[in-house]
Design brief:
With 208 residues, the protein is mainly alpha-helical. The chain has helices at 20-32, 35-50, 61-69, 85-99, 104-116, 128-142, 151-160, 166-180, 185-191, 194-200. Helix 1 (20-32) runs parallel beside helix 3, helix 3 crosses helix 5 (104-116) and helix 5 (104-116) packs parallel to helix 6.
Length: 208
């Protein structure tokens, strides 16, 4: 698929779903996360939906939003910070989903979305919700798959959810994780140059 044939996705398509689970998940993230992390999670949701053409399958938008907005909850004080942040976040997100009335199957999928969102070489082969969160988060923090997002959609997402402070904030959070959890999966990612990729990433377009 060429850049010119990438489909446009309008703001209406990535509006926060009006369900109790989605609204309360957003409120939880806003309570425990700095603004840059809230916006990163919202952009990851929007960018993931903007790349739905990559999976060719329908997505449960309620599940996708809850998983996307909570995917970095393991970087916050909402969790105990005793295990790798993806796993702690996945457990917390699954428990949240169950408490808000989602089915066990939906909660399990949210667990896997959060647990695998950094899993290069694995996530893209999984359920569409897992793959799209992987794509959306990767696009936002490291500029991966940007060519698979329509230019107008990219601009509108950045207008809606600015990325001011995200780069420096994410680097600081990741460095803190590596310091506290030297045997975590993220430590291996950093050794492979992930932070350098994050530091180099700049959206070609900046919102006004």
């Amino acid at each position: 698929m060429t850049r010119t044939s990438v489909p446009y996705v309008s703001p209406a398509d990535y509006t926060v779903p009006d369900s109790q689970a989605c609204q309360q998940a957003l409120a939880l993230v806003k309570q425990f996360s700095p603004e840059f992390l809230v916006n990163h999670s919202l952009r990851s949701y929007a960018f993931g939906l903007a790349m739905s053409h990559k999976v060719k399958q329908d997505v449960d938008k309620e599940v996708f939003f809850v998983g996307a907005i909570l995917h970095d909850i393991g970087l916050t004080d909402y969790v105990a910070q005793q295990d790798t942040f993806e796993i702690e976040g996945a457990i917390a997100a699954q428990a949240f989903a169950m408490a808000k009335g989602l089915s066990a199957e939906q909660a399990d999928l949210i667990h896997e979305m959060v647990a695998l969102h950094n899993s290069v070489g694995v996530a893209h082969q999984c359920d569409p919700e897992i793959a799209l969160l992987h794509f959306g988060a990767g696009a936002d923090v490291a500029g991966l798959w940007i060519e698979d997002i329509h230019k107008k959609t990219l601009h509108e997402v950045l207008e809606a959810y600015h990325d001011q402070g995200c780069q420096a904030g994410m680097i600081q959070l990741i460095q803190d994780q590596v310091t506290r959890k030297p045997h975590s999966y993220m430590s291996t990612m950093v050794e492979l140059g992930f932070l350098k990729k994050v530091a180099k990433h700049q959206f070609a377009y900046k919102p006004t």
